[in-house]
Amino acid sequence: xxxxxxxxxxxxxxxxxxxxxxxxxxxxxxxxxxxxxxxxxxxxxxxxxxxxxxxxxxxxxxxxxxxxxxxxxxxxxxxxxxxxxxxxxxxxxxxxxxxxxxxxxxxxxxxxxxxxxxxxxxxxxxxxxxxxxxxxxxxxxxxxxxxxxxxxxxxxxxxxxxxxxxxxxxxxxxxxxxxxxxxxxxxxxxxxxxxxxxxxxxxxxxxxxxxxxxxxxxxxxxxxxxxxxxxxxxxxxxxxxxxxxxxxxxxxxxxxxxxxxxxxxxxxxxxxxxxxxxxxxxxxxxxxxxxxxxxxxxxxxxxxxxxxxxxxxxxxxxxxxxxxxxxxxxxxxxxxxxxxxxxxxxxxxxxxxxxxxxxxxxxxxxxxxxxxxxxxxxxxxxxxxxxxxxxxxxxxxxxxxxxxxxxxxxxxxxxxxxxxxxxxxxxxxxxxxxxxxxx
Length: 439
Ligand code: PMP
Fold this sequence. Notes:
Number of domains: 2
Cofactor: pyridoxal 5'-phosphate
InterPro entries: Aminotrans_3, Aminotrans_3_PPA_site, PyrdxlP-dep_Trfase, PyrdxlP-dep_Trfase_major, PyrdxlP-dep_Trfase_small
GO molecular function: pyridoxal phosphate binding; transaminase activity
Keywords: Aminotransferase, Pyridoxal phosphate, Transferase
Strand order of the largest sheet: 4-10-9-8-7-5-6
Order of helices and strands: EEEHHHEHEHHEHHEHEEHEHHHEEHEEEH
Bound molecules: 4'-deoxy-4'-aminopyridoxal-5'-phosphate
C-alpha cells in the first residue's frame, strides 16, 4: 500500500533511472520514452550539461523570493526568451507549470482591460476540444467535457468555438477556404457574445492532448489574427506543449508567422529537470498594468534561480544540438512511418502532426470516420500494450473528451534513426496485438 494517490488505484512500476530516450524501472526493465513523459523531456533525460548547470546554481543559491531579489539566472532566461519571441513580445513572467502560465495570461489580459478602460471585457473564448490546464481558471477555458463537467458550477462558463478538424468535416486542410471557414466561427462568436465583452481568444497552435497533434488548416492562423485585431481581442497562444522546439521551431507560432499578444509555455522549458513555465507578453499590455499599480498575481516558487538556471541550460542544449532541425527531420520520417502503419493497419484512420508532435487516430471505419466503440477504451488499452513492449506513448480521447482515440507519438527531440526504428517496431507489434485482441 502506498500513501500516494494520483488518478486511479493502479500501481505503476517504480522508476529507477533515465538517460537520453530510455528509462529503467526498479526491476531493470527498459522503456523507450516515446512520449517524452507528457511531451516534457524534449532534450532527453539526464543531459549532463543541464545537470552541471543546476549543480553550479545549487552551489550559489537555490531560492530567492521574487519580491526580494532578482537573480542572474532569471534575468538571463527572461532575456533569452524575449530574444526568441517576435519583436515586442519581451516581458516575461515566470511560473512553475502550464496551468499557472495560462492563469497568468488570463489575469494579465483582464488587468490590462481594467487599466485601459475596457472593464466590460471579461470573456475568454477558447475551442472545443482543447486542453489548457487543471486549475479552475484554466479549466474554464478547456473544451473537454469529461474534465470540466464536474466543476462547471464552480467556474464561469467561457464561450467556445469548434477547433478546426478538417479531417472529420471532409474539408481540404490545404485550401485557405477551410481555414477561413473555421476562423469565421470565431468572428461570429465574438459578434454574438458582444465584442466589448470579449477579452481574449486562447488556442493551442498545434493541438496537443486535446485534438491529438492536429495542425491548423491553411490560412486559419492568419485569419484568426485579423479577427482578433478587428475586435480588439487579445490572442493568447498556449505553447505549453508546442513550445521549446517540439514542432520544429522554438515556438509553433513561427510556422504561421502569426504574432500572438501573449505566449504561454512550460513543459519543454523545464524539460523534466525542474518545474518551470513562462508567460511572455507584449510590452504594450504590461506597461499600462504596471502604471495602474502593478500586476496583482504571482506564485511563491516562480522564477526561482535553480529552475531558471536549468531552463537556460535546456535552451542552450536545444540550440547547440540543433534540436529544432532534428525535430523537423525526424518528425517527417516519423510521420511517413506512421502513414506506412496506416496502410497496413485498417484500424488507423488518420495520421497527423508537425515536427515531433505526431499522432494517429483509431477509427472503426475510415469512410464514415466512426470512432471505435467507447467501451473498448482503446486509448488506454493500446498504451498498456505498448508499455508491456517497453514503449511509452501518450493517449487521449479526441472527440470532445467523449469518444475517438488518438495515440500521441512524441519522443525526445534527440531521437535518431535507430530510435525511430525501435518506436515503429514497438507500435507495429502493439497494433497487431491490439487488433487480435478486439477481433
Ligand atoms: N496547456 C497545454 C496545451 C497543455 O498540454 C497542458 C498540459 N498537458 C497544460 C496547459 C497544463 O500544464 P500543466 O499540467 O503543467 O499545468
